[in-house]
Amino acid sequence: MAPRTLAGLSTVLASAGNVSEALNALSQDIAEHDRNGSVALFIFDARRDLLVERLMPAHEGMRTAQLEIALDHLPSAIRRTTSAGRQFADLGAESGDYQKLLGVGASPEAGVLLLRGLLVDGELSGVLALSEPKVRFGHRLSEKIAPAVDLFALAYARLAEHRAREEAVRTLEELTRSLNEEHSRAVQQLQRKLSEAQAALNGKGTGDSIRVTQLKRAIEVAAVEARATAQRLSAVEEQVRVAVTKLEKAHIQLHAQGEALQMQSNLIYRVEQTLREATTGQDSRKVLEEVLQIVASKEQASSL
Predict the structure, then answer these.
(1) CA triple 298-299-302, angle to 5 deg
(2) Residue 113: strand, helix, or coil
(3) Which of 11, 4, 43 minimizes the C-alpha distance to 258?
(4) Rounded to an integer, what distance in angstroms lies between the CA atom of residue 150 and that of residue 142?
(5) What region, left, alpha or beta, does residue 120 occupy, with left being phi > 0 and alpha being psi -120 to 50 degrees?
(6) 28: how many CB neighbours lie within 10 A of its CB?
(7) Among the listed residues 220, 194, 222, 219, the one whose alpha carbon sits nearest the alpha carbon of residue 208
(8) Are 115 and 44 within 8 A, CB to CB?
(9) Is residue 124 classed as helix, strand or coil in its secondary structure?
């Protein structure tokens, strides 16, 4: 079966509801190119500077494992390339040792290990590990699937932005509920004390008037504190609103990048289709003219 086109993969990744679904789609695309190739995703915790979770597609489903692996275990050059997140870092002859460390297999079929960082807002958020078979002739698997990995990186960033928005909303809701409950408890307690003091005053004459005055002052202080709490809550809501706005702008930028990459994918597919038709004996000069027309039409569309 021919490998899935980039346009088809882009559609699948765009509809993925979580990282596992996107990773499964990428794994299937890799298997269509080379059944000996495999991929794993490592979630990176920037606060702890650790790889904390591993996701590996398998026939029985997604296999996950909790980890605590520091990036300092990687060679400095590999670590710099991975943190940049623009291309694969090749571990070469050391692949076997690092496949054992990361738990992605060290069998002869595992071949060479390559790592690529996945960035969200310019910060490292995950690491994609590709095990490709060794080849003596022709293109390497990592070169064949490079556009597919770029599409996965965009999908991963989109899903991370979605998770961040959900977490921000959930945190705001929990904070609002906690502040409201605290305020309600304080007001109820002060009202109860005031009622008790007023009842005592009515039964004992003016002997408890000082106590009533103190309680009234305490209520006034509580009201001031309640207003301050409300102001803090308003400030938090404003910060969350600003953060959500920034996330929405970032999502729009990611969507624009995805559309641009999809246009490039369609162009590559049309050129590949034209070259594939050339193998049927069509005049090479005519084929070249068709390829130039395709590229020229793409440049005109980009300028518009």
Answers:
(1) 85
(2) strand
(3) 11
(4) 11
(5) beta
(6) 14
(7) 194
(8) no
(9) strand
Q: DSSP string spanning 203-262?
A: HHTTTTHHHHHHHHHHHHHHHHHHHHHHHHHHHHHHHHHHHHHHHHHHHHHHHHHHHHHH
Task: Give the dihedral sign, CA 125/131/134/138.
Answer: negative
Q: Output the tens digit of pLDDT for each of the chain's 304 residues.
A: 455 677 888 888 888 889 999 999 999 998 888 888 889 999 999 899 899 999 999 888 889 999 999 999 999 999 999 999 889 999 988 988 899 999 886 555 568 999 999 998 889 999 999 998 887 777 888 888 889 999 999 999 998 888 878 888 888 888 888 888 888 888 888 888 787 777 766 655 444 566 667 777 888 888 888 888 888 888 888 888 887 788 778 777 777 777 777 777 777 777 777 776 666 666 667 767 777 777 777 666 555 5
Of residues 23, 91, 14, the one with CA closest to residue 53: 23
Q: Is 275 helix (H, G, I), strand (E, B) or coil?
A: helix
pTM for the model stands at 0.59
Nearest to 244 by CA among 123, 163, 186: 163
**Rg of the chain's alpha carbons, rounded to an integer?**
30
Residue 114 phi/psi, 5° resolution? -125, 145
| Closest to 90 measured CA to CA, from 130, 35, 133 | 130
Dmax (CA) for the chain in angstroms is 114
**Please, are residues 132 and 33 in contact by the beta-carbon 8 Å criterion?**
no
